[in-house]
């Protein structure tokens, strides 16, 4: 997904602005870190997250193969956030009707963004269990819509190889920026598209990168006991088909509080307003700092931006209500 820049430096349409996101050095987050820390800012994709890459990969791949016909087909997908927004963007541009299956946990802001791009919303209301998961209900609705709508196509982000393939490019950009020396990669996991694609690139090019999967406490991806999770984005109530044994060298399962603390530390020190999984990645790195060797290149893949979490992670009232007064956890001078 190299950006198609014309000779005068002008991009050919908004989808050409997806990818080639900045890699920035972090010097203030953990100033005593012996390792060099870098952040890959996926929030700077035009749809606001790394899921733009997956959405384009899946939709344009399906158009190329003839499975999807612009002007005729309808895309149906279950997503409460970033992938839905990425799909809404690419479908709008290619005149494809898009029906996004959402649930009551989808934030009002994400619903408004989806509508603004022209997506149609199909809301499920009955949770699958007392942990307030809606994945099974959403997938049932997807199957109903596929039966009802003629020429409906389901990208199925949890199992679509094009989701992972699109993310190989993310890793290529990182590797090129660091001349092939990427010692550690911290990557949040949901569908496992990102980690799968990065791991494939690393294996194909013989890089010696240690991949740290950053999952959510209570997610079923790397564990089998699920529990209620407050922060959306990473973590899943199922083990996705894109998961495979060995794609991560180590796994860290981070709590909702870790997400909040990581986000608040990152914005306080580096002025980067990240989303929930960004906070999980930051907290995961902090826990591993003592073992990161001096001079190691350590990349934090940061999936999305904080504007979508202003009513939760960046709301003092919400944080007080859910966790009590934990401000000291990001206000104290860091010892790292
Ligand atoms: C904010 C955020 N972080 C992390 C992830 C996980 O990425 P992946 O689905 O590629 O595993 C997602 C997926 O939607 C996400 O929206």
TrEMBL record:
GO biological process terms held by the UniProt record: alpha-amino acid metabolic process
GO MF: transferase activity
The entry's keywords: Pyridoxal phosphate, Transferase
Pfam families found in the cross-reference section: PALP
Matching CDD domains: CBS_like
All residue ranges annotated as the Tryptophan synthase beta chain-like PALP domain in the record: 16-304
InterPro entries in the record: Cys_Synth/Cystath_Beta-Synth, SbnA, TrpB-like_PALP, TrpB-like_PALP_sf
Cofactor(s) annotated in UniProt: pyridoxal 5'-phosphate
The protein's assembly and partners: Homodimer.
PANTHER family: CYSTATHIONINE BETA-SYNTHASE
NCBIfam families: PLP_SbnA_fam (TIGR03945)
The protein's name: 2,3-diaminopropionate biosynthesis protein SbnA
């Amino acid at each position: 997904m190299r950006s198609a820049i014309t000779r005068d430096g002008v991009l050919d349409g908004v989808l050409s602005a997806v990818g080639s996101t900045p890699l920035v050095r972090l010097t203030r987050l953990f100033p005593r870190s012996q390792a060099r820390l870098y952040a890959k800012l996926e929030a700077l994709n035009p749809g606001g997250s790394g899921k733009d890459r997956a959405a384009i990969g899946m939709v344009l791949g399906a158009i190329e193969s003839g499975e999807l016909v612009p002007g005729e087909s309808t895309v149906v997908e279950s997503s409460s956030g970033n992938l839905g927004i990425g799909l809404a963007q690419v479908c709008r541009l290619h005149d494809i009707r898009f029906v996004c299956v959402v649930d009551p946990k989808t934030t009002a802001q994400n619903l408004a963004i989806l509508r603004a791009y022209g997506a149609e919303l199909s809301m499920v209301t009955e949770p699958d269990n007392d942990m307030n998961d809606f994945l099974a209900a959403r997938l049932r609705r997807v199957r109903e819509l596929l039966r009802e709508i003629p020429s409906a196509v389901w990208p199925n982000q949890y199992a679509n190889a094009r989701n992972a393939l699109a993310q190989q490019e993310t890793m290529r950009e990182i590797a090129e920026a660091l001349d092939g020396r990427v010692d550690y990669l911290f990557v949040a996991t949901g569908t496992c598209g990102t980690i799968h694609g990065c791991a494939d690139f690393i294996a194909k090019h013989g890089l010696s990168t240690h991949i740290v999967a950053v999952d959510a406490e209570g997610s079923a991806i790397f564990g089998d006991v699920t529990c209620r999770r407050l922060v959306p984005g990473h973590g899943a109530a199922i083990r996705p088909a894109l998961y495979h044994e060995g794609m991560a060298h180590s796994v860290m399962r981070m709590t909702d509080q870790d997400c909040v603390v990581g986000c608040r530390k990152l914005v306080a020190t580096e002025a980067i307003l990240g989303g929930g999984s960004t906070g999980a990645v930051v907290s995961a790195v902090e826990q591993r700092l003592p073992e990161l060797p001096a001079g190691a290149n350590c990349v934090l893949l940061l999936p999305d931006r904080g504007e979508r979490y202003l009513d939760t992670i960046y709301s003092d009232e919400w944080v007080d209500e859910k966790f009590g007064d934990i401000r000291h956890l990001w206000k104290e001078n860091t010892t790292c």
